[in-house]
Amino acid sequence: SPSLPEYFVVPSSLADQDLKLYSYSFIGRRMPSWSWNHPNGSALVRMANIKDVLQQRRIDQRICNAITRSHPLRSDVYKSDLDKCLPNIQEIQAAHLKLKQLCVNEPFEETEEKWLSSLENTRWLEYIR
After folding, report:
1. Helices 16-23 and 53-70, interaxial angle, to 10°?
2. Which stretches of 24-90 are assigned E, i.e. beta strand?
3. Which of 9, 27, 94, 104 is deepest in the core (most CB within 10 A)?
4. Helix, strand or coil for residue 62?
5. Is it the case that residue 1 has pLDDT exceeding 90?
6. Which parts of 3-52 fold into alpha helices (H)?
7. What is d(CA 50, CA 56) in angstroms, rounded to the nearest whole number?
8. Virtual torsion, Cα 5, 12, 34, 2, nearest 10 deg
9. Can you tell me the mean pLDDT for 75-85?
């Protein structure tokens, strides 16, 4: 995938040929990438959705097992679908654009009440919270 770095960390129990095969199952061929590591062995792994729902469980389980085997304490993987609880990049960009337009086009002093409700409608403060 052109959007992934040239080098990234993967569990050693996943063979290169498995990674190449699995990459076709991910949207944009965005394989799971190890983004952050804590001294206790916890890791943040980011990955795109799997295209084929029928293969999703098998591939997901294989990758999670490899991550668990790589953990010093063999801790189970905790998964969270951030697509459901966080805005996507397009929503953040739209909110930022609305905020910029509001700050440039609406004088605060003249329309304080309208300005504050317009600020809330941008959703910018919700997203950065």
Report:
1. 150
2. 33-37, 43-46
3. 94
4. helix
5. no
6. 16-23
7. 6
8. 20
9. 75
CA–CA separation, 70 and 125 (whole Å): 38
Q: pLDDT, tens digit, for every residue of 37-49?
A: 777 767 777 777 8
Burial degree of 31 (CB within 10 A; 0-12, 13-18, 19+): buried
CA gap 72, 114 in Å, rounded? 55
Whether 49 has a binding-site annotation, put simply, is no
* Cα–Cα dist 99/112, whole Å: 15
pTM score of the predicted model:
0.56
pLDDT over threshold 80, residue 122: yes
Contact indicator for 50, 56 with CB cutoff of 8 Å: yes
CA distance between the termini of the chain: 31
Residue 18's contacts (CB-CB under 8 Å, 6 or more residues apart) are: 62
Distance CA 10, CA 63 (A): 9
- Tokens 């700050």, residue located: 103
65 is in an annotated binding site: no
